[in-house]
Automatic annotation (TrEMBL):
Protein name, UniProt field: ARAID factor
SUPFAM superfamilies noted in UniProt: L domain-like
Domain EGF-like: 78-120
UniProt keywords, alphabetically: Disulfide bond, EGF-like domain, Membrane, Transmembrane, Transmembrane helix
Signal peptide feature range: none
Species assigned in the record: Dryoscopus gambensis
InterPro entries: ATRAID, EGF, LRR_dom_sf
Amino acid sequence: LDLSNCSLHSVPPGLAEATTAIVLDLTENPLTTLPNGSFLGFVHLQSLAVPLTLECPGGSGAWQDVTVDRSSRLCQGQRNPCNSSVELAWPCPENAVCAPDGPGLIQCLCDSPFHGYKCLREGTFPMLLFGGILGTATVSLSLLLWGTQRRKAKTP
C-alpha cells in the first residue's frame, strides 16, 4: 500500500480497513505522530516505511530490523510479542492464550469452551432457556394487555 507523498497530516481513518497489508509506505508525508492503535489488527504487516521524524509503531523491539536512511525509517519483520522472553505487562487470563494484534500489540483469545469477561464463563450461551423465558414473558404480557384493554377498543 503506497501512501507516500500524499500530504497526510494524520493517519487516514480508512487505513484501519487495510489490515491485510504486507507492505506500507507512509514516507514523504508531514505526519507528526502515529496514534496508539493506528496499526491494530495489522498482523501481516512485514515492511513499514515512515518519515524519519517518527518511530516504528510498537517501538524498535516490535521489529526485527529498523533501518534509517536520510529521509525515512524502514521497519521490517514484525516480531510476535507473545513469543518474546520479556514478561508481558498484562498477561492473559488463565483460560486464554496470547495472540499478536499488530506491531507491539497483543490480544487475549479465550480457549474453547471458555468465553465472556476474562474468559471466566464455561460452555455456550443458553439460547433455549433464554428464548423460552423471553417468549413466555412476551406472550403472557400480550395476553394480559389484550384482555384488559380490548373493552376500550370496541367501536361505538
